[in-house]
Amino acid sequence: MTQTYTEDYRHEDGRTARLTFAEPDGAVRGGLVVLHEAEGVTDTVRLLVSGLAGEGWLAVAPHIVAAGAPLTGQDVLAATDVTLAWLVERGVRADLIGVVGFDTGGTAALVVAASRKLGAAVSVGGHAVSTPASDELPPLVEIAGRLTSPWLGMYGDDGDVAGELAVERLQEAASAAKVATNVVRYPGASHRFDADPAAAAEAWQRTLDWFDAYLR
To answer: Which PANTHER family does the record associate with it (predicted)?
Structure first.
């Protein structure tokens, strides 16, 4: 397992961020910003960072907010921007940078993909598909049509009709974007894919394939 490290980064313009990252053993294929779940940079997030590094990516998770604190779009974009600067300083080309998020981080990843032009973006699960996550984060169906980065979204519907319809609405909204999009629904799966080993394995492979296709 590739080891993760945490450092306090300060950009030359004064912006700061705490970053947890892992580097591949060989050549760096590109860089991936990993957006964490509501509980912060947990062991699950560290495993994701480590796993992506094992696939050749310089993977880095900014510590956006403290565990349990409300997540705002401004927080997400500010943390992502300074993390992008960190990757560029390490020699990663802008067109080889993507963003990925799991659970609440999946919601954040779509916010970033609709606000920044990156090489690719992936959301694995997440909330607020048709209802806002907070006063500062709009429903994803309202912003999916404005995506500016190629985006893959994977969602479980918990076997619930309302969940199924929400994912279908998101798929329809994303299809209006001027970039490549794909929305995959996992019938009966929880929004936390780590609770469903089969769905988690397939989502992991789809994530890798998406980055392989667009970060090259």
So the answer is: ALPHA_BETA-HYDROLASES SUPERFAMILY PROTEIN, CARBOXYMETHYLENEBUTENOLIDASE-RELATED
